[in-house]
Amino acid sequence: MHLFNTDGLKNTDVFPKDTVPIFLDDDFRVIEGPSYWAIALAQKRSRSIDTLKQYTTVLARFLQWRDDKGVKATNWQMTDEDVINAYIGYLINNRDIKGRPSNKTIEDYIATLSYFFKWATKKGYKHYWKMDLKKVTIQIKGSSSMVKTEKQVEKRFQIDNGSTMHVDREQDKFIHRENIPQIMELFDDVVYAFIVLVLWKTALRPKELFQLPYKGAGLNAGLKRYREEELSVLKEILFRFESKGKDRDIKFPPDVWTVICRKWMPERVKRAVRYQERNNGKMPPNNALFLSEDGRVVTPKMLRDNFNKVAQDPRCPEKKITPYMFRHAFATYFILDRLKHFNLLGKAYVYNAVIDAELREWMGHENIETTYKHYVHLVNRYFHNGLLDVMDDPVNKEILNAFEK
Q1: How far apart are CA 97 and CA 86, in angstroms?
Q2: Tens of pLDDT along 144-180?
Q3: What is the CA radius of gyration of the chain?
Q4: pLDDT class for 26, splitting at 50, 70, 90?
Q5: Displacement of CA 90 from its chain's centroid (Å)
Q6: What is the DSSP string of 330-399?
Q7: Half-sphere exposure in the Cβ direction for 378 (13 Å, CA)
Q8: Chain segment 102-114, per-residue pLDDT in tens
Q9: Is the C-alpha dihedral spanning 155, 158, 164, 169 positive or negative?
Q10: Among the listed ranges 62-71, 74-83, 202-211, 369-378, which one has the minimum average pLDDT value?
Q11: Which residues does UniProt assign to the signal peptide (predicted)?
Q12: 64-93 mean pLDDT
């Protein structure tokens, strides 16, 4: 069995990958199913080049093992639960002196194989691995192993505090940042697009969000409308608010408040007139930054209703959208970017006081495990499974630039 990279598939729209892996048997004939799978992976934006290589390498090792047993890689469809258990046993009994592959690595191998066989089922390839291919877990004890096939079993992994993190469940409450510009365009009222921007860049809870003033006072006096020449040198602004019965503050991002001043404040002035018409000439309160198009102060219920409406739009790129999900996405991408900066992405958990202190300040948590360890393990698993792209300023700039339109 051979695994090659070829540039002869450029017409398959696999940008930005320069080459695509291709599986060949010992006579250099294409092994159809695995090769088409590699092409399908290359076409996914969420699959980086490293992830593509990792996935295809796992499958190549499995096919080579079949070759070595005399079954032949071309007979990959002749795979059932017993074959998978035998392969796990082979991996366990042939570990190197450092104990590699570890139990966790073996579980990842089988999860990748299940992903391939799930794809093969959808594409009409008949095979004999009749487990639930969407969710799989492995129990490994000593040199024995068992692949669970119950339909409700989830792919899971243990974090250091002994609790179980369910990847599928976490994924359901996660918003990918490359989808945020498209999400903002789906709101009927632009006020909710501005709210999305604030939620995404500050990790505020909805109740905290609605304490943002139109014109701040006291410690929040810095939250006001600035002239254009002032915006060019704007620094971080203190925002103090009540959070779960306690006072808390963050340094409000100057780039977000610049967008608020340039694009939202003029619109808010127009909506204030409609508020007056609805309220016998009374001006809207200064502690109400967000007004709807018809001149009402935006409430948490209005926010939820509009988010639900967008989530039901067939053009929405996410299955579910709630205001709180942007807080979760903030923490996830914050850790992703920081781990990349410190060259810790994908590596074993190491406590970093700088990262923890930064995240704890934004999230307002006191427990280290909820503000740091949980997200480190989650990000590493997402990254390992190809669920996150390491994207920095381009996406953030695209989100901010969306308001210039």
Answers
A1: 21
A2: 444 443 333 333 333 333 344 455 566 667 788 888 8
A3: 26
A4: confident
A5: 34
A6: HHHHHHHHHHHHTT-TTSPP---HHHHHHHHHHHT---HIIIIIHHHHHHHHHHHTT------HHHHHHH
A7: 25
A8: 887 888 888 888 8
A9: negative
A10: 369-378
A11: none
A12: 86
**124-144 pLDDT tens trace:** 888 888 665 444 444 544 444
> In sequence order, what DSSP letters do the residues of 100-132 get, joined into one string?
PSPHHHHHHHHHHHHHHHHHHHHTT---B--S-
The residues near 60 (Cβ < 8 Å, ≥ 6 apart) are 1, 3, 23
H or E, element range at 86:
helix 81-93
Q: What integer pLDDT is reported at residue 79 of this predicted model?
A: 87
**Both tokens assigned to 150:** 């119950």
> In the structure, what pLDDT confidence band is assigned to residue 220 with cuts at 50, 70 and 90?
very high
Extract the tokens encoding 55: 């996935």
Q: Quick check: 134 and 121 in contact, CB under 8 A?
A: no
Neighbouring-strand partners of residue 157: 165
Long-range pairs for 187-192 at CB < 8 Å and ≥24 separation? 187/306, 187/310, 188/306, 188/309, 189/292, 189/293, 189/306, 190/267, 190/293, 191/264, 191/267, 191/290, 191/291, 191/292, 191/293, 191/298, 192/298, 192/303, 192/306, 192/307, 192/310
DSSP string computed for 130-188: -S-SSS--EEEETTEEEE---TT---EEE-TTS-EEEHHHHHHT---GGGHHHHHHT-S
Q: Tell me how long the chain is.
A: 405
Nearest to 298 by CA among 329, 268, 262: 268
Element (H, E) at 38: helix 32-42
> Following DSSP, what letter does each residue of 180-214 receive, concatenated?
HHHHHHT-SSTHHHHHHHHHHHH---HHHHTT--S
Q: Assess contact for 287 and 211: CB atoms under 8 A.
A: yes
